[in-house]
Amino acid sequence: MASAAEQLAANLNLSSFAKATELKKRIWFTLGALIIYRLGTYIPVPGVDATVMGQLLHQNQGGIIGMFDMFTGGALGRMTVFALNIMPYISASIIVQLLSTALPSLEALKKEGDQGRKKLNAYTRYLTVLIALFQAYGIAMGLEHITNNGASAVVTPGPFFILSSVITLVGGTMFLMWLGEQITSRGVGNGISLIIFAGIVANLPHALASLFQLGYTGALSPFFVLLFLVLAGATIAFIVFMEQAQRRVVIQYPKRQVGSRMFGGDSSHMPLKVNTAGVIPPIFASSVLLIPVTISGFMNGKNMPGWLNTLGQEFGQGQPLYMIFYAAMILFFSYFYAAVTFNPEETAENLRKQGGFVPGIRPGSNTARYFDRILSRLTTIGALYLVAVCLLPQILISRYNVPFYFGGTSLIIIVSVTIDTMTQVQSHLVAHRYQGLIRKQRGGRGNAKGDQSRGVRRR
Q1: In terms of pLDDT, which residue wins out, 162 or 321?
Q2: Is 60 in a helix, a strand, or coil?
Q3: How far apart are the C-alpha atoms of 384 and 386, rounded to whole Å?
Q4: Residue 15, class by beta-carbon neighbours within 10 Å (0-12 exposed, 13-18 middle, 19+ buried)?
Q5: Contact at 8 Å (CB) between 372 and 344?
Q6: Could you tell me the maximum CA-CA distance found in the chain, to the nearest angstrom?
Q7: Which residues are bridge partners to 250 per DSSP?
Q8: What's the pLDDT tens digit per position in 368-396?
Q9: Which residues have C-beta within 8 Å of that of residue 12, sequence separation ≥ 6?
Q10: Where do the structural domains in the chain lie, given as residue ranges?
């Protein structure tokens, strides 16, 4: 079995890719959709002064606006039709996922298969519209009060501007949601993740140019630039290793006799990822902790209580208090999200119904406690890994003025989406290879039958 798998993997080379016409169509469709997305990040919202918005973003790069602009691929800083990006859909998906574990009605939909999944997706779309309406209205109202050096961010404020901005921003989000679903169904998959990935990667050349500019002007030594590139490569390799790391729990199925034949007796494994929560904990922790910095940046220290101004300074990126709370919140959200996404009792019950068991562990509650113990240990390792990856770039940013786009969150997103996309492409290649073998086998049988019929006719 292993030799057959190794031989199949060896055959997945460039020649196999060249023959996979269906896969090439999916890749071209994905590239075309991502190009449309990038073009949309340069179409401005009517009535907004892009110069004022660019200056405002430059002044608040350390706040939540800078992080949000990173995920939108610069669309927020340019205030374009995709300024909200796909974030309302992600927020709606997380809320529906959390509610599906708390509300029995939604939890029952999860167990109904495809029909229940369609209903949950419909609820997610409706909630996306509500969140996008709320965020778009807040942005439109905030734009009317933004001024920089006496210049207003809105050319002609008023109700018509608010209405047009809300329609434009909500329409852009809904279009991106539809585009992501099209990439998932007609492209290589992971449409929503690929849109976020494209937004982050689009700004990496500018970040690299800024880094080399610092080395060219003497702000950073060439040795440090080289050391930083080596450290970035080692960090990416470490992220790849941790994102693919998993604990394989052996599952045994008993033998059963049907008539005179014996079935079952096979063993498989249940993979449990080390980083079960993914990139959700750093995103949540950053969003919560950067709120004081954002408020302080908007108010510029005026008309603001002294304690809030001090809090905004202490929670600035690179400050010790920020580092401590950032690490603590990553740990909290890692355990919370892992507990939400994986239910040991439900997993153990499903395994018992299928007749499977963990060798040496009694089915039922003992298996559930065994899964819970393993998940707790894996979550601890995964949370510490997230803390290390996210805090190291923060230290480089605060002490050495390294470009913001080299943050740990962006690196984790880039690596995770790349791994998932490569897995999707490989699965398409494997499917194409199997289809080719089946066609050859059927063709060989057809030729053999034809030869036999011709032999009969000759006789």
Answers
A1: 162
A2: coil
A3: 5
A4: exposed
A5: yes
A6: 105
A7: 269
A8: 899 899 999 999 999 999 998 888 777 76
A9: 426, 429, 430, 433
A10: 41-185+194-200, 203-419
Q: Which of 347, 330, 341 is nearest to 385 (CA)?
A: 330
Burial class (CB in 10 A: 0-12, 13-18, 19+), 285: buried
pLDDT: which is higher, 244 or 114 = 244
| Rounded distance between C-alpha atoms, residue 74 and residue 38, angstroms | 10
- Angle, vertex CA 179, rays to CA 178 and CA 184, nearest 5: 95
Whole-Å CA distances, 288 to 229, 325, 330: 30, 10, 11
- Rounded to whole angstroms, the Cα distance separating 184 from 176 reads 12
Please state, rounded to an integer, the average pLDDT across all residues of the chain.
77
Q: Mind giving me the DSSP string for 238-298?
A: HHHHHHH-EEEEEEE--EEEETTEEEE--EEEEEEESSSSTTHHHHHHHHHHTHHHHHHHH
Using DSSP's 3-state secondary structure scheme, residue 84 falls into coil
Q: Across-strand partners of 273?
A: 246
Q: Is the dihedral of CA 111, 113, 119, 125 positive or negative?
A: positive
Q: What percentage of the chain reaches a pLDDT higher than 90?
A: 12
CB neighbour class for 412 (10 Å; exposed up to 12, middle 13-18, buried from 19):
buried
How many CA atoms, within 13 angstroms, populate the side-chain half-sphere of residue 423?
10
3-state SS assignment for residue 44: strand
- Which helix H or strand E contains 41, and what residues bound it? none
Q: Are strands 261-264 and 246-252 parallel, antiparallel or unpaired?
A: unpaired
**Distance, C-alpha 41 to centroid of its chain:** 19
Cα separations (Å) of 194 from 35, 83, 242, 406?
12, 17, 20, 18
Does domain 203-419 correspond to CATH entry 3.50.50.60? Answer: no
Residue 188: Cβ-neighbour burial (10 angstroms; 0-12, 13-18, 19+):
buried
Q: Is the dihedral of CA 402, 407, 408, 410 positive or negative?
A: negative
The continuous run of DSSP H or E covering 43 comes out as none
Q: What is the SS3 assignment for 133? A: helix
Helical ranges in 82-203 per DSSP H: 87-102, 104-110, 114-144, 159-186, 191-201
